[in-house]
Design goal:
alpha/beta; 9 helices; globular; binds nicotinamide-adenine-dinucleotide
Length: about 325
């Protein structure tokens, strides 16, 4: 617990979402003061309900595409739907959230001289030709496809971060988050881990898109929050971008089989069409995070899934 003099006032945008609410729990535990700004598009007050009466916590219903005037020392910019079905629901708004949201939060950081961390994504690599992905790979992204509102929006946000750094000397931090899962994912979120776990617990068909041979590397939320906080507090000359995620790679078929085993489900696998531009492979090279932040993930997929399954059992 930090003492009063070291206590920081921190803004978390998207703080009522899955990752944001876990991050806020960690910051409150450390003794910081937290302002959460969220428009509740995919997030929920349920995720922060336990904090609403806390004296070091404040919630503002706010859309980051509008300017925000608050006085803070640090900003974690997480506001943006992360699941394909949600970011494709209103793609123009997704681009605005990524781009106008970044401009407003960077303008705020500039005015109050706050350090600012951007929750970027492995999607900046698109459907990658380099495997595993290293930070110096520029990616292969379709600029006009159904995923581009998110992929290009996040790429433009990175570019804005680096221009504010070069032009205005802002203290920036950019993390490229790979697929992360855990308790508080929305059961209707549409991402693969929550879909499979919810389907398995209900003994419904498990929906495999394509042949299920595409891969992802899944990080448990606690490991990810550890490294986000480490990154924010790292020396100012370390801007990133830095990959954060768990490098152990699985096919979607392997994930489905593991979920069925751990839930003891009677679900059957069904195969559905692969959405367009769905990346075939995804695995982070995390050498940079290891060397500069002294971090590596600790929770294996089986242990993380057990926690996630227990959470969904309770909430469904
Ligand atoms: P989430 O959908 O649970 O959370 C996003 C939050 O942002 C929600 O609370 C939502 O209501 C809020 N939001 C959306 N648009 C907003 C706007 N215009 N103004 C204010 N708030 C807005 O998703 P998450 O998994 O917690 O993702 C958090 C961040 O991390 C996102 O920026 C996402 O792109 C990034 N990320 C997540 C993953 C992952 O695997 N979870 C991977 C890569 C990147
Ligand atoms: N901004 C904000 N809060 C602040 C300061 C700025 O939301 O405390 C927004 C403001 O709307 C502005 C944007 O951030 O348009 C970018 O600010 P910057 O100072 O970089 O540029 P300018 O004000 O010249 O457009
Ligand atoms: N996927 C799947 N069944 C589902 C949901 C997703 O097979 O019910 C696949 C999806 O096509 C993709 C992978 O799982 O190949 C990860 O999808 P998710 O939406 O979780 O994340 P992203 O594609 O953004 O990495």
């Amino acid at each position: 617990m930090t003492n009063e003099n070291e206590r920081k006032r921190i803004l978390v945008t998207g703080g009522a979402g899955f990752l944001g609410s876990h991050l806020i729990d960690r910051l409150i535990d450390k003794g910081d003061e937290v302002i959460c700004a969220d428009n509740l598009f995919t997030g929920s007050k349920d995720n922060i309900a336990h904090l609403l009466d806390h004296k070091r916590f404040e919630f503002i219903r706010h859309d980051v595409t509008s300017p925000l005037y608050v006085e803070v020392d640090k900003i974690y910019n997480l506001a943006c739907p992360a699941s394909p079905i949600h970011y494709q629901y209103d793609p123009v708004q997704t681009t605005k959230t990524c781009v106008h949201g970044a401009i407003n939060m960077l303008g705020l950081a500039k005015r109050v001289k706050a350090s600012i961390l951007q929750a970027s994504t492995s999607e900046v690599y698109g459907d990658p030709e380099v495997h595993p992905q290293t930070e110096d790979y520029w990616g292969k992204v379709n600029p006009i496809g159904i995923r581009s509102c998110y992929d290009e929006g996040k790429r433009c946000a990175e570019s804005l971060f680096f221009d504010y750094w070069r032009q205005h000397n802002l203290q920036i931090k950019v993390v490229r988050i790979f697929n992360t899962y855990g308790p508080r994912m929305n059961p209707n979120d549409g991402r693969v881990v929550s879909n499979f776990v919810v389907q398995a617990l209900r003994n419904e068909d498990i929906t495999i898109y394509g042949d299920g041979q595409q891969t992802r590397s899944f990080c448990y939320v606690d490991d990810l929050i550890d490294v986000m906080v480490l990154m924010m507090n790292s020396p100012c000359d370390f801007t990133g971008p830095v990959n954060i995620g768990n490098p152990v790679e699985f096919t979607m078929l392997e994930l489905a089989e593991l979920v069925i085993k751990l839930t003891g489900s009677k679900s059957k696998l069904v195969f559905e069409p692969l959405p367009s531009d769905d990346p075939k492979l995804r695995q982070p090279d995390i050498s940079l995070a290891k060397s500069n932040l002294g971090w590596e993930p600790r929770v294996c997929l089986e242990d993380g899934l057990k926690e996630t399954i227990a959470y969904f059992k309770k909430t469904l």
